[in-house]
């Protein structure tokens, strides 16, 4: 196994070119969970294709947020259905259920059913979980305004928090640097009724501790006003 630098397609190409094995599998998130950045999927797929590797993309944070009808970043990049690309999705984030799925060529699916021990010896999903995920998926496709609302709310959060780049996903990273400052800021938000994530080393590099805000389609205007009020006060103190 070789770990390459973050979003560095040239490093991936070099690792593939130098590998002694005939086969290779490249793994990446579609949307990175800590900072919400998008993977360079088109470039990565091109590198994998030219080096005879299969690309596996985890759409945990892309499904329901990116692409037409929330179909994910792979679909947005017109890569869905390729015979040398596999997608994993979770049913527990945008779809609000539990479990996950592997999307890929028939040969890959058949192999996993026959040979993947975690699948063979695991208990199947409860019918209620499957039914709720299917219902959420239909709702997401039938009401694309929900997908647009996620990104609109993320953009507003980013603007209020002074995030330099417009968010590309539901995740809005607010870098505070010091882990204690970030932890205290997250706790202060929670005490005022706003739950935010707090990422500290080793989840992020030293000096990059951050608040991780996650936008939702269901946030009302009143919710957003309250979040704005709380964040303004908390970040003013945290950035002194």
Automatic annotation (TrEMBL):
InterPro entries: Aminotrans_II_pyridoxalP_BS, Aminotransferase_I/II_large, AON_synthase_class-II, PyrdxlP-dep_Trfase, PyrdxlP-dep_Trfase_major, PyrdxlP-dep_Trfase_small. Its cofactor is pyridoxal 5'-phosphate. It catalyses: 6-carboxyhexanoyl-[ACP] + L-alanine + H(+) = (8S)-8-amino-7-oxononanoate + holo-[ACP] + CO2. Its EC number is 2.3.1.47. GO terms for molecular function: 8-amino-7-oxononanoate synthase activity; pyridoxal phosphate binding; transaminase activity. Homodimer. Belongs to the class-II pyridoxal-phosphate-dependent aminotransferase family. BioF subfamily. GO terms for biological process: biotin biosynthetic process. SUPFAM superfamilies: PLP-dependent transferases. It is an enzyme of class 2 (transferase). Residues 8-230 form the Aminotransferase class I/classII large domain. Pathway: Cofactor biosynthesis; biotin biosynthesis. This is 8-amino-7-oxononanoate synthase.
